[in-house]
Design brief:
Blueprint lengths: L5 E6 L20 H8 L5 E6 L20 E4 L2 E4 L19 H6 L2 E5 L22 H7 L4 E7 L1 H14 L3 E10 L6 H11 L3 E2 L2 H5 L1
Parallel strand pairs: 1-2, 1-6, 2-5, 6-7, 7-8
Antiparallel strand pairs: 3-4
Helix pairs in contact: 4-5
EC number: 3.5.1.19
Pfam family, one: Isochorismatase
InterPro entries: Isochorismatase-like_dom (IPR000868), Isochorismatase-like_sf (IPR036380), Isochorismatase_Nicotinamidase (IPR052347)
Length: 210
C-alpha cells in the first residue's frame, strides 16, 4: 500500500484531452476509472491542470500561416503548436466530470501553462526548463520521496513530469495503464527512451497499490 512518503500525481485529465475535446487523446477518458482507483488509496493526491490564457503562444492560431502540430521556434526553443485548448474558464479546461472522486481527494492542484508566452508540459517546470511550478517544494514539504504518475498524455505531460521528478531526486513511476498517448510522429517511443534513461520505472495499478 502507498505510504506517507508516496504521492500520486494525476496529469491533465481534462475535457479538452478526452474524446470530443479540442485536443482529444484517443481513448483519453479510459484513464478516469484507474485514476480514481489509485486516488482512493493515496494520502497525498496532486492534480495538474493545463490553464492557458486565450491566444497562448503555443496555439497554432497565434501564429500566422501555422497549422496545429507544426513546430515553431519560440524564445525558449522549438515548440509544437497545438489547437486552442484548455483555455482558462472554459468547459474544456475543466477536469473530466468522472474524475470527481480524485478531485475531492486532491491536496493540491497545480495550474500550468498560464504564462502567455511559454508552454508547460511538466508538472515541475515550464518549457524553458528553468521556471519552476513550485511542485517540487510542495512534495518535499510533505516528506514525499516517491511519486506515481498517471493521466494525459503519456508522451508529453506525463513523460516530462516523470523525467523531471526523477532528475529532482524523487523515485518516479509511471502507471501506463492509467495513461494514454498522443504518439505524434513516434513521440511515445522517444518519450519512453528519455524517461527510462532518467531512471523512471513503470508500475501497474495493482503494483502501485500493493
Amino acid at each position: 500500500m502507498p505510504t506517507d512518503s508516496d504521492a500520486l500525481i494525476l496529469i491533465d485529465i481534462q475535457n479538452d484531452f478526452c474524446p470530443g475535446g479540442a485536443l482529444a487523446v484517443a481513448d483519453g477518458d479510459a484513464v478516469v476509472t484507474p485514476a480514481n482507483t489509485l486516488a482512493a488509496h493515496f494520502g497525498i493526491v496532486i492534480l495538474t491542470q493545463d490553464w492557458h490564457p486565450a491566444g497562448h503562444h503555443s496555439f497554432a492560431s497565434a501564429h500566422a500561416g501555422k497549422r496545429p502540430f507544426d513546430v515553431a521556434e519560440l524564445a525558449y526553443g522549438p515548440q509544437v503548436l497545438w489547437p486552442d485548448h484548455c483555455v482558462q474558464g472554459t468547459a474544456g479546461a475543466q477536469f473530466h466530470a468522472g474524475l470527481a472522486p480524485a478531485v475531492d481527494r486532491a491536496q493540491l492542484i497545480v495550474r500550468k501553462g498560464f504564462r502567455p508566452t511559454i508552454d508547460s508540459y511538466s508538472a515541475f517546470f515550464e518549457n524553458d526548463r528553468v521556471t519552476p511550478t513550485g511542485l517540487s517544494g510542495a512534495l518535499r514539504d510533505r516528506g514525499v520521496r516517491r511519486v506515481f504518475l498517471a493521466g494525459l498524455a503519456t508522451d508529453y505531460c506525463v513523460a516530462y513530469s516523470a523525467t523531471d521528478a526523477a532528475r529532482l531526486g524523487f523515485e518516479a513511476l509511471i502507471v501506463e495503464e492509467a495513461c494514454r498517448a498522443i504518439d505524434l510522429d513516434g513521440s511515445l517511443a522517444a518519450a519512453r527512451r528519455d524517461w527510462m534513461a532518467a531512471g523512471v520505472k513503470g508500475a501497474t495499478v495493482a503494483e502501485a497499490l500493493a
